[in-house]
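Structure tokens please, single chain.
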Amino acid sequence: LSKAPGVPTSRYIHMLLSLDTISKLYNLLAAFSTWILLAGYVLLPGTFVSLQNLPDDPPPSVDPASAEKPDAAETIKRWLLTQIRNTPLLYLATFCTAVGALGMLALWFRWRKNYVWIINRIFIPGTLNSLAGVISTVVNVQTAQDGKWSLTAVVSVTVTAVSTVVNGTLWVVYSQWALRKVQEMHARDYFGGYPGDGDVEKGK
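Here you go.
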């Protein structure tokens, strides 16, 4: 944004005016990235399995009499891995989550200097969608799985919780520190103080 003669601008004004000049493609990519991240989190509970879903009998490849022997442990582990419900869905959920996360990271890097855009388009939707993933995981485990936590459920709640914390932290840092500093500089240059602190009148 060029500074026209006699027209004062600040970094904060630049950020606000840039919102209208940023290509709609980036807005669509941001919406898609945060949406497909949520889709991955919503799909993950469909892959959970608990002990109540496992057969009572040992795997066919293991003799019942030797099922408790140490040399059968590895065979049993491989068998338990096959009990993950709907493995293709797990791959799809992982793919969606990875695409969403990478898209958000790329857009964050591209528009890292426009705090307003990345807060509204990346961090807020990312936080809310990740929180929805946590809630979806916990509700699924407590209802459909009778409170039994499988390996995929633990991994899912860990990933969604970490995503919630990371996005939420960035949201707070950018909105309460980075953006606020820019707003304070703008208010100090044009009004002599920060809007709302009673010093606005100084600029008049």
